[in-house]
Amino acid sequence: MTDDFSQRPAPESVRLIDFEEAKVVPGIVPGTFILVVSGEKPYESMTVRLIPLVYVTQPEYWGIEVTGTLPSGFLLPVTAPYTEALPLDGITGTRGIEVIGANKRERIELPRGK
Q: Which residues pair with 43 in a beta bridge?
């Protein structure tokens, strides 16, 4: 079955959320990197995840979405800080990454050779 992934229906339970800071730090193994994103989630019960976009060919900047999910469907309207990390092995563009949130997009260049 050859189905076009981008044509599938979008989920109702996942949303882009705001982020305040995005940075790339070196991993433990030389030549590896980790994306660290932080901000304030709108609901304390929300689960925050960093989700890489799907590409057929390597882009200049690999998009990574900052998403929030309410797994229980219960909204506790209390904000809470979050910090999420994602190893960037295999999900970097030719120049770097682009962090995509509800409030902004931020491109981060990575050192050459990665």
A: none
For the chain, what are the domain ranges?
13-109
Pick the closest to residue 65 from 24, 35, 94, 32 (CA basis).
35
CA atoms within 13 A on the CB side of 89: 7
How is residue 36 written in tokens? 């660290």
* Average confidence (pLDDT) per 10 residues, the chain, 114 residues: 71 90 94 96 93 95 96 80 97 96 97 63
Query: CA distances (Å), 12 to each of 4, 16, 35, 40, 109, in order?
Result: 19, 11, 26, 21, 32
